[in-house]
Amino acid sequence: MTVKLAYEAMGDGPPVVILHGLFGSGRNWASIAQALSGSYRMYLPDARNHGASPWADTMCYSHMALDVLELIDREGLQRPVVIGHSMGGKTAMALALEYPHAISGVAVIDIAPEAYADQFSPYVNAMRGLDVAAATSRREVRQALACRLDVDAPVDFLMQNLQRHNERFDWRLNLMATAVCMQDLCAFPSELLRQRYPGPALFVAGEHSRYVRPESRAGIVRLFPRAQLQQIRDAGHWVHADEPEALIQALRGWLAETIPLPATS
């Protein structure tokens, strides 16, 4: 069943949709969207089971692509460009491969159309293992979460999912569904590997990230024959946080090629 995604929007111009990654929300991309909003109407949806969007039992990429398609239809967006990071990048690829005529182009940030090892179940298990309803402060929850995870775990990023509801803390992320669907989230739908997206595509990788490897290029170009590949120096997987200005420059240049803006008098 399709989920009606919550979203925020800003700016004016041709429509651009940005899809966030696992454990995130649309607000993670607000500064990037703001930088582009002078030329484009930017849409920042929360994925199913994330942020303010409804919860659902499934999280396969075909279903999440349909969620985005429903948003496009609901808001009457005329073939938007779709940008996606990590989980959102896989959703964007699924949308492009299954419904190519619904979009004008796709930009994928630091992810490839391939399966990855599960690195995220320890985060989900740690979050599920906390009795956050009994906590008296965010600091208490953060300390308990940090104690359960490795020192390099993105604790502050995960803590963005903690909310106070009716005088008690809870997680706005659907941890149960995320745990059950982790295999789907780490994979890429095998049926989509037979598809091709003929439109413009941009793949951006962080220099220090291991998600887009040199051997990933062949798989990318096979599915997205018009793909441009760029690398952002000094960035890891969270390119938009590590080197936001470089990413904005890359997106702005590619968007200008993909959606020519009307000339100003």
UniProtKB/TrEMBL annotation:
Residues 14-244 form the AB hydrolase-1 domain. It holds the Pfam family Abhydrolase_1. Keywords: Hydrolase. Signal peptide: none annotated. InterPro entries: AB_hydrolase_1, AB_hydrolase_fold, Epox_hydrolase-like. This is Pimeloyl-ACP methyl ester carboxylesterase.
